[in-house]
Structure prediction request, 359 residues.
Amino acid sequence: MSKSLTAISPADGPIAVTGASGYIGSWVVHDCVEQGYTVRACVRDASNSNKVDHLLAMNNQGLRGSVELYEGDLFKPGSYDAAFKGCSGVIHTGATVGYNSETPQEVYDGCFTEVTHVLDSAIKGGTLKRFVFTSSFAAVGHPRPEGYVFTEKDWCGDNIEAYNGGWTENRIPEDRNTAYAMAKANTEKMIYQQAAENGTFDAMAILPLHVIGPIMCENHDQGMSWQNCMRYMMKGKQYKKTEGGRMLWNNTDVRDCGRAHRLCCESTIAKNGSRYILSAADRRGELYTWQMQEMMQKLYPQIPVMGGEEMDGDKPAQHTYEKPRSYCLLAKQELGLETYSIEDTIRATGDSYLALGLV
Ligand SMILES: NC(=O)c1ccc[n+]([C@@H]2O[C@H](COP(=O)([O-])OP(=O)(O)OC[C@H]3O[C@@H](n4cnc5c(N)ncnc54)[C@H](OP(=O)(O)O)[C@@H]3O)[C@@H](O)[C@H]2O)c1
Prediction:
């Protein structure tokens, strides 16, 4: 199939977004509405005002497009049939994987079940040209020496000898990280294969690293998310997520992440199987926790104590690893993505927490 034949625009009809109430999904919806699309925002419960009011408010912001709410559950086959009927694009950001109580095997199997239901409904809709899946950098990362720069050519499970046999599919029932990473990688492959066999649409994936940026409502402050860690740093608490904060924060702005999904639908360069890492644009966006803390403190001098990592003089008490390193260069080159500066992103995140009274 010629790649340009499947690129879409608002003139091709509505576009649907699953997980529309979520942090990333909401910014996908916002960007599409801003660009003039009629967006079918798929949520679990359209009457839950805590999760949908910010979506409906987009209809009153003078944006060119509009939002319509549709209900759907990822675990019910056919749940998205009505929402996807007549859509030119489907953007699948919804997922139960995250910080819930499923077993690793359920995380893995659940991802396949969810994607299969969404893809089936999308194909059944009859007018699908583009399918964009929110995968994860987890589908890319694997053991490499510190400082190694990952690109879209990398897949988790590469360099298998460095895992001591640890990251084979046998590990899925025992280890949540393996289950999540392999679920994302293997569902990506399944989607590309189905698109290739079907021949009427192309599929792509967005692979975010640490997503931060403005939250639109309190529900976007999910426990243990990166934005939630920033909130606690603003409350003066030490950052705990990765054992003493020993990894880089390799940041992408949630607004860039939202825009990249829509650009995938419109790109005449992106083709079936194209995948785009959404991470720092350059080294300025890759920060150790103490650098993050320093930048946040500078932006918010009125906050007396900004949390961070334990220091020993002017050095972190624990070694901080040079990973994960990766840059969103392909998204910039092929999708034309222009990214926010790290200062803008941090400021917009903090401002949104302050505006909602959460700090
Ligand atoms: N945030 C990150 O740093 C990051 C990094 C890499 C990849 N990702 C990926 O990005 C995607 C979105 O993440 P997020 O951070 O935006 O998470 P989020 O805010 O928790 O959003 C998840 C969305 O999925 C929906 N959902 C959950 N279970 C559902 C079900 N059974 N049926 C229908 N909808 C369901 C939620 O709806 P309700 O509101 O009804 O719960 C919510 O809208 C996920 O696939 C995640 O793996 C995120």
In short: Residues 19, 21-25, 43-44, 51, 72-75, 93-98, 134, 136, 208, 210-211, 222, 225-226 surround NAP (CB under 6 Å). The domain at 3-214+251-283+325-340 is CATH 3.40.50.720 (Rossmann fold). The two ends are 51 Å apart (CA to CA).
